[in-house]
Amino acid sequence: MSKVMTYPAHIWAIAVLGLPLIGGHLAQFAIGLTDTIMLGRYDVEALAAVTLAGSFYFVLFLFGGGFGLAVMPMVATSAAEEDETSIRRSTRMGLWLSLLYGMLVMPLLWWSYPILIATDQDPQVAQTASEYLRVAGWGLFPALVVMVLKSYLAALERTQIVLWITVAAAVVNGLTNYALIFGHWGAPELGVMGAAIASVVTQTVSLVAVIFYAVKVLPEHSLFQRFWRPDWEMFFSVLKLGVPIGLTLLAEVSLFATSAFMMGWIGQVPLAAHGIALNLASATFMVHLGLSNAATIRAGNALGRKDRAHLEKGAIAVTGMSLVVSVVTIILFLTCAEPLISVFVESDDPQRPQILAIGAGLLAMAALFQLVDGAQVIALGLLRGLQDAKVPMVMAGLSYWVVGIPASYYFGFIRGMDGIGVWLGLVLGLASAAVLLMTRFWTRSVKAVGVPAE
């Protein structure tokens, strides 16, 4: 029985569930990392443009991803209750909402140039970024559908297939990028547009693979039979949970997107250094995110069984695992900054010394926010598992928009600390979120589940 699980047993269970999720997130991250490395070696201006475009794209993608993340705890809870019908209903309506959202925001990706210019970006960088988004934006539809289906599979603890589909997509992305950015293997040299085409191809391959698996291996859920039929009760249930999750994601990603805009005000080289440092910090964040997803699934199971003892021990175990990862990352960023940054820049690039100098300072700041970044995403995972999203949304909004963004501007520009100041604001925003969300979970949300641990 789960109520008698020891802490080592919890750690083992989280690892078995979470390691494939971590691997999947790292493989997903490798897709963006491949773009950054290849474009950095192709042209620094191209790297700056895609850094800007990527920030804009992910603001929109992650808000829509809220519907996929809403499916995860709903399916996990339904699975614990052995309610197969609700598993199908919530997943199907998550797909509906994702597709509808994609249609609503596609015009923003198509006509992104005036939006980017309104943020006071370099006109040439903004033009290149908008051209990239006109192509890469079509990948939003398969990407959102894939996110829903991966959440559905992960909630059913089929995390191995999620990992392998994402690994396959990363390989496809790398090969397509290599061919189309540089013009290898007889392909045209397309630079930034090659990276955009590779992004759409990658998302489409992922979509085909995940649909094939869901239909062939889990036919009992009949996800796509009579897909056109509405289920308004479940539609609004997923919407009610997905919107605050999406807004929470939007608040956090907007903090980082705004930091990219601010770095663009400082200059093209600082923006490129920001993109490299953020990619390195994001790689370690994928580990915390995988643990957070595992926390969501296990908390959703505990909610379905009304098992508070299991929830509390599991929460302590996953938080401790995240803390260990943070300590290792802090040591790595403080001792190996230059070798890590060098991977992204050619040895003969004339701007290499500037990028290394700026990037090393930014990585030192990234080391500072590892603890709080891990803590806030673990807390969010636990709260989502309990389907507690509205108050965490407000907490995230206050932390990132009222604390983080103003602090970035204040330290970066008013205090004249430039990129270091911008990143200090990130640290303060994440720290505020970590404190508020962890407090919410332990003082309020956990008490709504079953009976207390003995």
TrEMBL record:
List keywords of the entry alphabetically.
Antiport, Cell membrane, Ion transport, Membrane, Transmembrane, Transmembrane helix, Transport
Which residue ranges run through the membrane? 12-34, 46-72, 93-112, 132-149, 161-181, 193-215, 235-266, 272-294, 315-335, 394-414, 420-438
Membrane topology field:
Multi-pass membrane protein
- Organism, per UniProt? Ruegeria intermedia
Recorded GO MF terms: antiporter activity; xenobiotic transmembrane transporter activity
Name recorded for this polypeptide? Multidrug-efflux transporter
Q: Where in the cell is it found?
A: Cell inner membrane
GO BP terms in the entry? monoatomic ion transport
Q: A Gene Ontology CC term for this entry?
A: plasma membrane
For this protein, the record's Pfam families field holds: MatE
